Amino acid sequence: xxxxxxxxxxxxxxxxxxxxxxxxxxxxxxxxxxxxxxxxxxxxxxxxxxxxxxxxxxxxxxxxxxxxxxxxxxxxxxxxxxxxxxxxxxxxxxxxxxxxxxxxxxxxxxxxxxxxxxxxxxxxxxxxxxxxxxxxxxxxxxxxxxxxxxxxxxxxxxxxxxxxxxxxxxxxxxxxxxxxxxxxxxxxxxxxxxxxxxxxxxxxxxxxxxxxxxxxxxxxxxxxxxxxxxxxxxxxxxxxxxxxxxxxxxxxxxx
Length: 255
Prior knowledge:
There is one protein chain. Helix content is 31%, strand content 17%. The protein is α/β, with parallel strands linked by helices.
């Protein structure tokens, strides 16, 4: 909205990111670009119903609980975003228009429809930048300590998009750089014949993605972006089940 205050987050708003298990000792660093659903108080409800704010357009359903359980199983830090991707998408280049969506899966985001540059920059400065600075700082500290890092980005996807029923239970995304770990993850998961595993599906990693290219590629880190179907991790039991599967596959792929 035009004229949005330069300082976006008020004293009662949560911090832009959370780090769980910061002292985790394994090689893995878990990240959750879309794990949160909060909206700064000054933005109200972005013109959305409560139902829309709980949909996949606003949050990667299940990834926060999944990530916390996986952080425990792997003994890994988990850095995750607090705010909804509809406030600002932390897996998009801050210079691109789509970093703040005006429409998603047929829903207009009314609160994003008339932003001036100051309003956009306020969201970048308050939420997007601190999140990525935190990831960079942890990677730098691990490198300085001589600690190996494998970046594991956690996402979830809607079972149905544009009337297409997606058959995959889980997908592993990769693109450039050290793809060997991601490819090994695909093989490990595909060994389970009870599940349908996508290799760069339901999405293909490309220049649209921001987090893995920004942090993993320049550092030549092994990485993978994991997409799990949201209905499979919408409750604690599902999150625990899939955290176990990902822990087993990731550990085997690393070794």
